[in-house]
Write a structure and sequence with these properties.
homodimer, 211 residues, mainly alpha, Arc Repressor Mutant, subunit A, Tetracycline Repressor, domain 2, 2 domains, DNA-binding
Chain lengths: 211, 211
DNA sequence: TGTGAAAAGCTAACGGTTAGCGTTATGGTT
DNA sequence: AACCATAACGCTAACCGTTAGCTTTTCACA
């Protein structure tokens, strides 16, 4: 898995990065909707089909790190410190995410997103995919079925922190406020493991299903 | 507002209904993705531009009652019985919604939705719009700013019931399970009004902002 | 060096959506 | 009763994201 990449894959990765960088520049300069796929391909000096073999959609060009974001979220749960509860691990994770949002580059990026309906929608469906991934890890950690209502309800609630933090004047406070609302009494039905002694379930989680 | 419509508007409404009915039939018969806009327009005997002057997108043809659904949701809060709390009113509302889902026509409709990625995505962004509307009513009812974190968190949690109920083997139980998790202790921060004596705030709500 | 496979390319199209512009019907006003 | 502003509808032609089909280049490995 973590072998040296080889010339071929290095070139592929380079092409991919080059396309994404070119697109990002153009988006930031002229706005997402004002830049066409054919233009991007021309500017990056690749064929349109090549572009689409690297990215599933135009929006994915802007949200290149979307998958990484999901992986980090899953990691926050599976790789949390022993004796740390899942809610606590998630709170910590989202505090870090929110700090990242404050970076100047991130601020500019999210302004770009806000200016384009297409990107806004893409972002919100992204949170939803994360929701599914989070549900799967938590269910696995607790030994529950993936379809568990409480797991899904919990994941859904937690992922709501993304839009909330983004639109709040004080994102860090919003994160804390949301997680403070998760009281030990909140999850009442047969899943005290949510808050109780952490990491009791030994089931390993084999990564999210990338599309 | 509720005057007699006049010939012009009656014709317009008739055209709209005719287009929607034609489209629905074709979708149910051949599937959403297998029917093209140009076909629908031809079958309804209107121009494509006319079709798009009535509906903002192809998906909106299938989800024609989306706006009504949102209105009913808002109504469930503003028009609830005196002394009924907001969570209780919403529980009642969603129990009714879930019952509606069990109607044979509804079952067929939702199968259609499940079979098309485009419609699935449209549905989930629809819940999100409802989320904004619900946040606005609740904030208005409680005299809070629309951007209140707790209001948004609460609305977000509640709207999660839609996908949850749809994918649950026992939707009614899922609804109850979700609302049972909303304990009086859940909303702790300065908003005990969520569960407390209902309808104390007299602010009228002037309907959702239709696009 | 040869070979199979992955990566990249080209052309052409498909399907949703919109712009531009013209025509007709309707409702309200003088 | 004549009139005008405007809403509703229509036609044509395109734009834009995306994909299929097929050829060419590049690399890994024998």
């Amino acid at each position: 898995m973590t072998e040296e990449p080889g010339r071929r894959e290095r070139k592929k990765a380079a092409t991919r990065r080059h396309i994404a960088d070119t697109a990002r520049e153009m988006f930031l300069e002229r706005g997402f909707d004002a830049v066409g796929i054919r233009e991007i391909a021309a500017a990056a000096d690749v064929a349109v089909t090549t572009l689409f073999s690297h990215f599933p959609s135009k929006e994915a060009l802007a949200f290149d790190e979307g998958q990484k974001r999901e992986d980090r979220l899953v990691q926050a749960v599976t790789g949390r410190a022993p004796e740390q509860s899942i809610p606590d691990a998630l709170r910590e994770h989202f505090r870090a995410v929110v700090e990242d949002f404050a970076r100047p580059a991130a601020v500019i990026f999210w302004r770009l997103v806000d200016d384009s309906p297409a990107l806004r929608e893409y972002a919100s469906t992204m949170w939803q995919r994360h929701e599914d991934a989070l549900t799967a890890v938590i269910a696995a950690e607790l030994g529950l079925p993936k379809s568990s209502t409480t797991c899904r309800a919990f994941s859904h609630y937690v992922l709501g922190v993304y839009p909330l933090a983004r639109e709040s004047p004080d994102p860090m406070a919003a994160v804390d406020e949301m997680f403070d609302l998760i009281t030990p009494g909140w999850i009442e039905i047969d899943v005290s493991g949510f808050h109780g002694a952490a990491r009791s379930a030994p089931q390993p989680y084999h990564g999210a299903e990338s599309s």
